[in-house]
Amino acid sequence: MSGNLALDAEIARLTDLFQQAGGQLVDLPVLQPAETLLDLYGEDIRARAYVTHDPLAGEMMLRPDFTVPVVQMHMQGGPSPARYAYAGKVFRIQELDSDRPPEYDQVGFELFDGADPAAADAEVFALFSAAMAHMNLRAVIGDIGILLAAVRGLSTPDFRKGALLRHVWRPRRFRALVDRYSGRAAKPAGRAELLKAFSEGRDVLAKAGPLIGLRSQDEIEARLKVLVADAAEPPLSAAETDLLDQIVTLRESAPMALERLRDIAVDMPAIAPAVAKVEARLDAMAQRGVDVEALEFEGGYGRTSMEYYDGFVFGLSSMARPDLPPVATGGRYDALTRALGGGAAIPAVGGVVRPSLALQLAEAGQ
User: Fold this and answer.
1) Per residue in 94-107, pLDDT tens?
2) Do the beta carbons of residue 7 and residue 356 sit within 8 Å?
3) Distance between CA 40 and CA 37 in Å, rounded?
4) In 189-222, which positions are buried (b, 16+ CB within 10 angstroms) versus exposed (e)?
5) Residue 344 pLDDT more than 80?
6) CA 112 → CA 67, 209, 337, distances in Å?
7) pTM to 2 decimals?
8) Which of 130, 179, 144, 129 is nearest to 274 (CA)?
9) Residues paired with residue 88 on neighbouring β-strands, in sequence order
């Protein structure tokens, strides 16, 4: 209990709705092993999480969200299909000038079921839409799986594809890589000379001074080898670069977006299976009474969230306060179950609500 009667009532309302939808209520530890999150997201997660050290358990983090611990719990022997509901605090370091709280409540629902992923996506979206229907929020959907498929289908070496895939959830870095690979961006000053010296066998690190970062000399040299190989590759074609741009900048009503994606798939067949999933999902949503004509689709939606969504994504936001984070977000994270399941994967989709934000908007009449 938070001590705030209105907040406690909203948490109870949402938790009850998710339990009525079949969610088994679970309680998860606030302290989570840091190793798991670092393995998933790399050192970047440190900038967003509160880290501490236990003399027995080692490095720990205050949970930055619930999805990872729910997946860990389920992959250790949970039934399939399975539905979970939860409520509690999460902790995230905010920007220095941000007025957002470093800790806040989340109420969520997760569905593990591989029988019909499109139907599961539609069920979760409809559940969250119904839970927040009284607030007249703006609903946006997307599908990160389309961009992932597009990158994997590029006519470029695997090391370039791997770099792009690592940065799908970092739009600025992704854009910088696309610009570099396509030749739209100028090469960094001095890089050509450095790579020429390295490829000729000269010791380019001799005068660099002592190693002070996390990378070893072997890792630095391996990176230089990749840069040498990259410099020898022809630019990414203008046609493929344009198709990537079309995907990430796509903003249309859901039916119109589907038509645009079908057109893109003619020139980029690698995305055709992902586009078929979008179509199946919209059909399943319509069957659940969702007005898909009124849904907005954004090709780049969800790319700044936690990096486990790899398919369908959605958000419900205030139209009057676009500066605030979404009241509810969710999506599909099949790859996360594989990463935490030792190779075994269970298709999964879920979402969370920020009840304090919902109350803030309600109290402001928004």
Assistant:
1) 776 667 788 899 99
2) yes
3) 5
4) eeeeeebeebbeeeebeeeeeeeeeeeeeeeeee
5) yes
6) 12, 52, 10
7) 0.89
8) 144
9) 106
Strand partners, 331: 313, 350
Instruction: Give the DSSP letter of residue 88.
Output: E
Please tell me the distance from the alpha carbon of residue 33 to that of residue 26, in angstroms, as a whole number. Answer: 18
In whole angstroms, give the CA distance from residue 143 to residue 154. 18
Q: Which residue has the tokens 């798939």?
A: 265
**Inter-residue contact 90 to 357 (CB < 8 Å):** no
Dist CA 356 CA 241 (whole Å): 41
Sheet holding 58-62, edge to edge: 31-33, 58-62, 51-54
Instruction: Tell me if residue 48 falls in helix, strand or coil.
Output: coil
User: CA 129: distance to chain centroid?
Assistant: 20
Helix 144-152 / helix 238-249 crossing angle, nearest 10 deg? 170
Evaluate whether 350 touches 67 at the Cβ level (below 8 Å): yes
Contacts of 269 (CB under 8 A, 6+ apart): 153
Residue keyed to tokens 């205030």: 318
User: Residue 266 and residue 278: Cα distance in Å, rounded?
Assistant: 16
Looking at the chain, which runs of residues are DSSP E strands? 24-25, 31-33, 51-54, 58-62, 82-91, 103-112, 138-143, 251-253, 296-298, 312-317, 328-332, 348-353
Say which amino acid occupies 151.
V
Query: What is residue 235's DSSP assignment?
Result: P
Q: Evaluate if residue 34 carries a pLDDT over 90.
A: no
Give the CA diameter of the chain.
Answer: 71
CA pair distance 295, 140, nearest whole angstrom = 6
Nearest Cα to Cα of residue 326 among 296, 291, 302: 302
Q: Which amino acid is at 257?
A: A
Tokens 């998710």 belong to which residue? Answer: 18
Q: What is the mean pLDDT of residues 252-256?
A: 97
> Which residues, in sequence order, are CB contacts of 359 under 8 Å at separation 6+?
6, 7, 10
d(CA 304, CA 299): 13
